[in-house]
Specification:
Shape of chain B: elongated
Number of domains of chain B: 2
Order of helices and strands of chain A: EEEHEEHEHHHEHEHEEH
Strand content of chain A: 25-35%
CATH architecture of chain A: 3-Layer(aba) Sandwich
Shape of chain A: globular
Helix content of chain B: 55-70%
CATH superfamily of chain A: P-loop containing nucleotide triphosphate hydrolases
Strand order of the largest sheet of chain B: 2-3-8-5-7-6
Structural class of chain A: alpha/beta
Number of helices of chain A: 8
Distance between the termini of chain B: 28 Å
Strand order of the largest sheet of chain A: 6-7-8-3-9-10
Oligomer: heterodimer
Strand content of chain B: 15-25%
Distance between the termini of chain A: 30 Å
CATH topology of chain A: Rossmann fold
Chain lengths: ~240, ~400
């Protein structure tokens, strides 16, 4: 096993329902992700890409497991241990931003740090540094309702990064944004990844967004159909 | 972490200020009523004890029948005493300084075109001395008047006011039932008793007059006994019991059909009545706390549903189930404590006003206030637990999808 192998899924199966209504959302999926990779997962709806994301994000318990995260077998962990794993190693970005309303941008970014039990001063300092990083240093006191969609997603990215995660999981991060804002968000992610050696796993259905990744996993019917460099990289190489 | 959670809970409570207030109203009413009742009850007990002690520690009360705590025992009516009993008792027990017979009833008093119904306390000249009640006008009964049963009376302030208004009643005659009675004095105003009754709504008259003209019998309901200062009341009580058994011809094996009480026992009997009352009302208040608790549970369940997505987000960024549980539990407890605090303030204000109106001491008990807080926190924990548990058991994936 390579030393910098961070995520290793082996023969993951996730079955919903039973009998005739049985749905195999994941059907024997193998995925390895090494440290620092930017992986895009694509596929038609119902292909299992969201379920794969939930498994990687330690939300969902597959029907059969073999998932090693950072060398730890996730299968045997309790719900509370999964929560600890999310708290210390994972950062999430959602399509709908999922910021808490009636809470300033700074308070939103502080949230994961509260669960990490950081003292107040350190929390504020880190939250403001994270907001600077996404270019929203001047908006720390604004409520989400006072921010545009692109700005809200930046706050969400700051929140995902504030806890210094190993992996950022992004579920359709540009799904609610126009082309220009989407490009800005993607460039921000690419920059952050380069600066911090982040591992990013992103689910998307837009080729343009997937092009920012350096590896593309194409899923169909709960199976990995294609796994390789993105077309962009292929083109660059040519 | 705890501080953050508390701040969050308060923010959430204040965000829905009106809803929060209505939710805790049940707890507010429960705590306020418990506190008000207990405080007023305590104040009136203090007043009873003070009143009774004012009569003097050397005063004994002899009553017919067995006196149980707080109420007269059931069964046949006990034989009353007679004036002869009083005289014989005075003769037989040398340590008795004075013994005053008391009987009472109600009658309508008429003067001119005014009439007024009042309590009659029938006794003799020693009553005013024993009860330490000074006269505002006129004089006390003479021995001749009480022995001869003359139609003379002393008015309480309320009766004087009702019949005579501003004019001087001493020397005038009022009609009591079918006889005319000369007013020889007016008592000083005393105000309401510890039970809220008007002590000045009373007319004193010689007991023989009362027996002959009002009651139509020779009964004495109560005997006030003053023991000589240098003798112990315990010894006097034993002697009185012995003499009364003899006077009333009670056999060796029979129980007493009368009771001798010192003022401590009188006080505990009277406060016993308020104690029972306080207990009953406290039970009613406990029911209102229960209803308040259910209100809190209801609104917390609504809150959990409203904030499903928030719960999902918190779980996604690493909140453990028990942290979510704590968040909602603390919110419920903060809510009920808020109710407890408002209730405590309200209850003390009510108690202060009622105490003022009843002219009794305002006696707030810090222990009861503390207890009210502990109890409302308890209500928050009990009724907040289920909603908090349902929040903690949410599936993060489902919660994040919740609209």
């Amino acid at each position: 096993m390579p030393e910098d192998l961070l995520i290793s899924l082996r023969q993951i199966t996730r079955v919903y329902g039973s009998g005739a209504a049985e749905v195999r959302a994941l059907d024997g999926v193998d995925i390895d992700i090494t440290r620092g990779e930017f992986v895009a997962i694509m596929g038609p709806s119902g292909s299992g890409k969201s379920t794969a994301m939930n498994v990687i994000g330690c939300f969902d318990r597959p029907t059969s497991w073999q998932y090693r995260f950072n060398g730890v077998e996730v299968g045997g962990l309790s719900n509370d241990q999964l929560a600890l794993l999310r708290r210390h190693y994972l950062g999430f970005i959602f399509q709908g931003y999922n910021l808490l309303p009636r809470m300033s941008a700074r308070d939103n970014v502080e949230l994961p740090l509260i669960y990490k039990c950081l003292p107040k001063q350190a929390r504020i300092a880190r939250a403001e540094r994270a907001l600077d990083l996404v270019g929203l240093g001047g908006r720390a006191g604004h409520d989400p309702s006072q921010l545009s969609g692109g700005q809200q997603q930046r706050v969400a990215i700051a929140r995902a990064l504030a806890g210094n995660p190993r992996v950022v999981l992004a579920d359709e991060p540009t799904g609610n944004l126009d082309t220009k804002r989407s490009a800005e968000i993607m460039e921000l992610l690419v920059d952050l990844r380069r600066e911090r050696n982040l591992t990013i796993v992103m689910v998307t259905h837009e080729d343009d967004m997937a092009a920012y990744a350096d590896r593309l996993i194409w899923m169909v019917d709960g199976k990995v159909q294609r796994d390789g460099p993105t077309r962009q990289e292929v083109q660059d190489a040519v | 972490m705890l501080f953050e959670t508390l701040k969050l809970a308060l923010a959430s409570i204040l965000r829905n200020a009106l809803r929060s207030f209505l939710t805790v109203l049940g707890v507010v009413i429960g705590v306020a009523s418990v506190l008000a009742m207990v405080t007023v009850g305590q104040g009136s007990s203090d007043q009873v004890i003070a009143d009774v002690e004012q009569l003097g520690t050397n005063v004994l009360l002899v009553l017919p029948g067995q006196q149980a705590m707080g109420s007269r025992s059931m069964g046949e009516r006990a034989r009353p005493f007679t004036l002869r009993d009083v005289d014989l008792l005075l003769e037989a027990v040398p340590t008795i300084e004075a013994a005053a017979p008391i009987a009472s009833g109600q009658a309508t008093m008429v003067f001119g075109s005014e009439n007024h119904r009042a309590q009659i306390t029938a006794t003799d000249a020693r009553y005013l001395v024993a009860s330490d009640w000074p006269l505002a006008l006129g004089r006390n009964f003479t021995v001749g008047e009480t022995q001869g049963g003359r139609a003379a009376c002393i008015l309480g302030e309320t009766v004087r006011e009702a019949l005579f208004g501003a004019s001087d009643p001493v020397g005038e005659s009022i009609r009591v039932r079918n006889f005319t009675c000369e007013v020889i004095g007016v008592l000083e105003a005393k105000g309401a008793s510890s039970f809220g009754t008007d002590q000045d709504d009373v007319v004193l008259m010689p007991i023989r007059t009362f027996q002959r003209r009002v009651a139509g019998n020779t009964d004495v309901a109560t005997i006030y006994v003053a023991v000589e200062d240098d003798f112990s009341t315990e010894d006097a009580m034993r002697e009185i019991e012995f003499v009364m058994r003899d006077l009333r011809r009670i056999g060796e094996t029979e129980e007493d059909d009368f009771t001798v009480m010192d003022m401590k026992q009188v006080a505990s009997m009277l406060t016993g009545i308020t104690g029972v009352l306080t207990g009953l009302l406290a039970a009613v208040a406990a029911v209102s706390l229960l209803v308040g608790g259910i209100g809190i549970m209801n609104i917390m369940l609504v809150s959990v549903t409203e904030r499903t997505r928030e719960i999902g987000i918190r779980m996604a960024i690493g909140a453990q189930a028990n942290q979510v549980l704590m968040q909602f539990l603390i919110e419920a407890v903060a809510l009920s404590l808020l109710g407890g605090g408002l209730g405590a303030v309200l209850g003390l204000i009510i108690a202060a006003v009622v105490s003022h109106l009843m002219v009794i001491p305002f006696a707030p008990d810090p222990l009861i206030i503390l207890l009210a807080f502990i109890f409302s926190a308890f209500v928050g924990v009990v009724f907040g637990y289920f909603p908090a548990l349902s929040a903690a058991r949410l599936d993060p994936i489902e919660a994040l999808r919740h609209e």
